[in-house]
Each structure stands twice: as C-alpha cells, then as structure tokens.
Design goal:
Shape: globular
Strand content: 15-25%
Helix content: 10-25%
Number of domains: 1
CATH topology: Metallo-beta-lactamase, Chain A
Order of helices and strands: EHEEHEHEHEEEEEHEHHHEHEE
CATH architecture: 4-Layer Sandwich
Strand order of the largest sheet: 6-5-4-3-2-1-14
Distance between the termini: 5 Å
Number of strands: 14
Length: 295
C-alpha cells in the first residue's frame, strides 16, 4: 500500500482563514509549512487511487499532486471515496467532484444519510457516482486487491447536527475508522476519535501503519489560546499528550504511527517545538501535505 497525504490539517486548515494565532501567522509568512484539510489517498498500483475523506480543499490537493491528474481528455485516477463521518471538512469536497466522472462513494448508512438529507449533494450525480452503504465489520474492496473494513470509534454527530445535548462518546455508525489490507500489510485510518478504548486497542493490534487523530496537543488548547471555548473532548477529539492522551494509550503498538487531522493551534506544527520533539521521541510522525508513506 502506498499512501499520499493530501491534507494533514483539521477543519479550517493551516493557516485558517480567520485566525491570527502564532501558527497561522508563521504559515502565512512561510516560516512553517501550510497544510490543507484532512484527506488521505491510497493506491496499490500507482494508477488507481481511493481517497479517504473528501475535504473542502480536494480540488487544490489533486491539482498539487501529479498522481491525481487526468491521463486523458476526460479522466481521473480517482476510483473511490470513503467518508468516515459527516463533518463538513470530510464531505464538502464531494461537491468539487461533481463533474460527471464515475467513482464509488462509500460510507455507513448513517453517514450517507447525512448526504441524502441535504439536496445540494444531489449535484454529485447518482447516475455516475454509486453510493454504497457499508456494514460495520464487513470487508469490501475499496480498490481491486485492497480489502477494507469500517469499525466504530468514539465520537459525535457533525457540528451542524448537534442539538442541545451533545454526546461526545457515541459508538456507532456516525464516526468510523478504516482498516486496510493488501494481504501483506495492514493500515488503519482514524482521523477523528474521542478516546482510545480497550476495544479499539484490540482492533489495532495487527497494525503496520496507523494514521490517527492529532487534532489537539491538550484538552484545553483552544481555550488557552483564545481561539475557542470548547475542550477537545467536547469537540470529539482525544488529546495527543497526557496520561489519557493518544501517545500514552497507543504506546504499546508496534505500528508506524502518524498524526493527521491536526488543528491550526497545535504546537506540533512547529518543527523546533518541545511538543514536536516529544512526539518524535515517542515514535510518531507528524503528517504533512504531500507526504508519501508505503506499507
């Protein structure tokens, strides 16, 4: 399996259009690299690609990556798209894929239901784009020769569907991770996760490669930075640091581990920060746009 990070950042990207935090300032000045919103592509043969989550930046991401360019007058290497939740930063890019090119769109019934309830997504022609509902735990071919399964991870409904009471540790079809296998290696993609439970740890035991939610360094990051009023857990994301964070809870995994879906406020964006050094010392990589990883 060959992976291409189309976008490494969380919703809003880096820099975020309305943010003047230190990271966004440094990204605008070119001091640190910019990053687009979270999306990951995978291929087995270098010709046919599947995209995991269609971010609002997908047009620019595909333009930037020659691997995703058309090879004929009307053509695309894109064979399929899989969405792991109904968040805007994972589904809005579908509207940029509406120009009558066929591909298969995968998602759980609940996630596809979010699309069905909003008629703007009818622009992604059903005559060209087949929507295929996935059952939890049931294998399917994401690409020829690439077997995939989705499984529930703790999370919540999309922000635009929240009511007065919000459960952030729901386990069901609304937030899923993806297991990928070509028969030789096993990779997991989990860009949104509220907690690492014993059940999730058991699932990940056979991982050779893990792409995992790196949204926030700590739970109070957005409050402390003045960029928001919600904790990480309220947003449905586990923190990287701390005794209950992802580094500590996933320490026992022997997989190659990469953080993806990283918020613009996260100090790990700074290459010389102590937080980046801590992440690297723990055996993790911080994803970057255009990064390629093979398993």
């Amino acid at each position: 399996m060959r992976f291409l990070v189309l976008g490494a950042a969380a919703g809003g990207g880096l820099p975020q259009w309305n943010c003047g935090c230190p990271n966004c300032i440094d990204a605008r000045r070119g001091k640190i690299a910019s990053a687009s919103q979270s999306s990951l592509a995978v291929t087995l043969n270098g010709r046919d690609w599947a995209v995991l989550n269609a971010s609002p930046d997908i047009r620019a991401q595909m333009h930037r990556c020659p691997q995703m360019h058309p090879r004929a007058l009307r053509d695309t290497p894109l064979a399929s798209v899989l969405v792991t939740n109904g968040d805007i930063d994972h589904i809005a890019g579908l509207l940029s894929l509406r120009e009558q090119s066929p591909f298969t769109l995968f998602g759980t019934s609940e996630i596809l239901g979010v699309l069905a309830e909003n008629r703007v997504f009818d622009a992604v022609s059903a005559a060209k784009v087949t929507r295929r509902a996935l059952e939890i735990g049931q294998p399917f071919d994401l690409l020829e020769g690439l077997s995939a399964q989705v499984f529930p991870v703790p999370g919540k409904v999309p922000l635009f569907m929240e009511g007065e009471t919000v459960e952030t540790d729901l386990v069901g079809e609304q937030t899923v991770g993806v297991r990928l296998s070509d028969g030789d290696g096993v990779a997991y993609y989990i860009p949104g996760c509220a907690d690492v439970t014993p059940e999730l740890l058991a699932i990940l035991e056979d991982a050779d490669q893990l792409f995992f939610d790196g949204t926030l360094w700590d739970d109070a990051e957005m409050i402390r930075s003045g960029t928001g009023v919600k904790t990480g857990r309220r947003m449905g994301h586990i923190s990287i640091s701390g005794a209950g964070g992802s580094i500590a809870k996933l320490e026992g995994l022997s997989a190659n581990k990469t953080f993806i879906h990283i918020n613009n406020t996260n100090p790990v964006w700074q290459p010389d920060s102590p937080e980046r050094a801590f992440v690297q010392a723990a055996g993790w990589t911080v994803a970057a746009d255009g990064m390629e990883i093979s398993t």
